[in-house]
Design a protein that fits this description.
Keywords: 4Fe-4S, Iron, Iron-sulfur, Metal-binding, Oxidoreductase
Low-confidence stretches: none
Number of helices: 9
GO molecular function, one term: oxidoreductase activity
Number of domains: 2
CATH class of the largest domain: Alpha Beta
Organism: Streptomyces coryli
Pfam family, one: FAD_oxidored
Oligomer: single chain
Radius of gyration: 20 Å
Mean pLDDT: 91
Protein name: FAD-dependent oxidoreductase
Strand content: 15-25%
CATH superfamily of the largest domain: FAD/NAD(P)-binding domain
Shape: globular
CATH architecture of the largest domain: 3-Layer(bba) Sandwich
Bound molecules: flavin-adenine dinucleotide
Length: 376
């Protein structure tokens, strides 16, 4: 393919691609820490699966730290819009407005209706002294009226599908490594104005344009009585990063501790589809667990300049169900944004970051509890 000849329209410290559950939080945390941040989001506003995807409530997850702050601002937006009642199930426009106002106040350069379609790399082929083959230096974006390039010191892939990691040549896998099955996807169903529901609509591969279109049409046919549908299908699981650390169900069942934990997640283990690991096949139903997510589960192999956050983090198909809840991914996103800001400040690549400094900050900011037991 010929090299892209695009105008360079921005050079922030941190570029976040995907302004959904994890990406909006990442952009906020990085900007609040002083980084110059551009946020590129394909949809018309922030929040991703939790707003325009129609998934309007928390389910499990640790609603502490950054997630608690998001809840507070969503509640205020509800009141400001004159909506009554609690936010057990939030109004998706209220949450999108709350997130937008926070991003704007933090000084994030926000680009909606802007889709990343390629990565810019500085070299290919040769390994550097760290054994890395390539460094992502920027992203090609399709804005509302034209394509352009943006370069950044650190780029955060919060697309939920590890798009940038895959395009950079980092190892990724779609769903289960054995069969590529995923958890069920959904096209939001609006039963009446403002009232959304999930749809248990089978599988959808959003990395395959034809299958993404098929999934939309199939979902619309499935509920013709609905008042309206969401614009885009949302997946519980798509393409995963196969990163420096890969989280597995065995790690979870054996309560594995990591020296580089940056986020704690909590959920049940509802596979929403078919499992592949031996444990469920032997009849074991995993209990609800509190799980550590290490920094190295965000690091792509052989690629520098990039952190992958959100549900595309490096975890197997069987490990993801308990890691993917919105409150937890909001906290993980904030931790990722802070990591990026620290990399900028220290002038280092993500894999050179002093993770103990990041952990110290996360504990100070209430994003990471003190370890209950020493790391073995
Ligand atoms: C049907 C369903 C039901 C669920 N139910 C619950 C529940 O009840 N409670 C709960 O807590 N969790 C629930 N979850 C899980 C949770 O909602 C998700 O795990 C979480 O929202 C994913 O966050 P994310 O940041 O990884 O992705 P998303 O929130 O999906 O964000 C990804 C963003 O990236 C953007 N994007 C993608 N590609 C590009 C690109 N190339 N360029 C620019 N932007 C791009 C998208 O537009 C999107 O905004 C559910 C998920 C689904 C799908």
């Amino acid at each position: 393919m010929p090299p892209l000849d695009l105008p360079l329209l921005a050079k922030p410290d941190v570029l976040v691609v995907g302004g959904g559950t994890s990406g909006a939080s990442a952009a906020l945390a990085a900007a609040r820490d002083g980084a110059r941040v551009v946020l590129a989001e394909a949809g018309p506003g922030p929040g991703g699966t939790g707003t325009y995807g129609g998934v309007h409530s928390y389910w499990f997850g640790r609603r502490e730290g950054h997630a608690a702050a998001v809840q507070r601002t969503t509640r205020l937006a509800h009141r400001a819009l004159g909506l009554r009642g609690g936010i057990g199930a939030w109004n998706i426009e209220a949450k999108a407005l709350a997130l937008h106002d926070e991003l704007h106040a933090a000084g994030v350069d926000i680009r909606y209706d802007t889709r990343a379609f390629a990565v810019l790399r500085d070299h290919e082929g040769d390994s550097d002294s760290n054994g890395n083959h390539t460094r992502v230096t920027g992203v090609a974006l399709a804005g509302p009226d034209r394509p352009y390039a943006t370069t950044a010191h650190i780029i955060i892939d919060a697309t939920g599908e590890a798009d940038l990691a895959a395009w950079s040549g980092a190892p990724t896998v779609h769903g289960s490594a054995a069969t590529h099955t995923t958890m069920w996807a959904s096209l939001a169903r609006f039963e009446e104005p403002g009232v959304t529901r999930n749809q248990f609509g089978g599988l959808a591969d959003l990395t395959d344009p034809a299958d993404a279109t098929r999934a939309v049409l199939a979902a619309r046919r499935r509920s013709p009585e609905a008042h309206d549908h969401g614009e885009v299908p949302v997946t519980r699981e798509g393409r995963h990063l196969v990163g420096e650390t890969v989280l597995t169900l065995t790690d979870q069942l054996t309560d594995r501790r990591f020296p580089d934990t940056i986020s704690l997640h909590f959920s049940n283990h509802d596979l929403k589809g078919k499992g592949e690991a031996l444990w469920p096949q032997l009849g074991l139903i995993p209990p609800n667990l509190e799980l550590e997510v290490p920094y190295h589960a965000l690091l792509p192999r052989r690629v520098d300049g990039l952190l992958v956050t959100g549900k595309a983090l490096s975890a197997t198909h069987d490990a993801l169900p308990a890691l993917r809840m919105q409150a937890d991914l909001e906290n993980l996103g904030a931790a990722t944004g802070l990591a990026a800001a620290l990399c900028v400040r220290d002038g280092v690549q993500p894999r050179q970051l002093d993770v103990s400094q990041l952990q110290k900050r996360l504990r100070h900011d209430g994003l990471l509890p003190e370890p209950a037991t020493p790391v073995s």
